[in-house]
Amino acid sequence: MSYDTRRAILRLLEVEPWVRRAPGTPVAHAAEATLPSPEAAHARFPGARPDVAALDWTALAATVAACTRCSLHRGRTQTVFGVGSRTARLMVVGEAPGAEEDRQGEPFVGRAGQLLNAMLQAIGLGRHEVYIANVLKCRPPHNRDPKPDEVAHCKPYLARQIELVDPRVILCVGRIAAQNLLGTDAPLGRLRGRVHRLGPAGRPVVVTYHPAYLLRSPAEKGKAWQDLVQAVELLAGATPAGLDA
What we know:
- By secondary structure, this protein is an alpha/beta fold.
- The chain folds into 2 domains: 1-66, no CATH class; 77-235, Uracil-DNA Glycosylase, subunit E (3-Layer(aba) Sandwich), CATH 3.40.470.
- The protein is 42% helix and 11% strand.
- Helix 1 (3-12) runs parallel beside helix 4 (57-65).
- It is globular and about 40 Å long.
């Protein structure tokens, strides 16, 4: 682990890192000269907490694995960080881990994961070619909806993942994920069929059904295919037909 990564983790744990200083230099001055400003890091990555915004992949994964900011950590088997290409053009964002994800430590496994893989394959992408993450990194008990405080503590991790991946398009699957990522209470029917813009950079976001919902309601797969076509057109740099992107 690099010195910068270790220092970032210590700061997240609220442990003052040891700072090498010249003889006679006051400790406060040495720390101020060595440690980056959290406010400066926050300005670089809007939407992330100042203590998360400057983390690299190694430090971010370690921070998530050790996170105890909300009560969900008490019931988890392990955190579910994310999987796939860290330079992906398409990023898939879901709601939260389920029971199987909690056991395996990987998002979208089981039947819903198999359907997501098939959806990606239908647009010419393998699972390893996209990056997949959830709004929450720990499983809510009984797969209930995330609580606002849980999202508030966990969402900065996702914001940093988005910054690090820097995807061309985000595919948001399911109402809960879409509402939390986009900061809206609009129903899924109103969120589908248009291109949303995330953050100051206006990153395109396409909303579609969760694979678990499609398993229960296979008649909606046609609409999900329309959403995938939107994402493909955006990846190709085109404006989806009939949409104001």
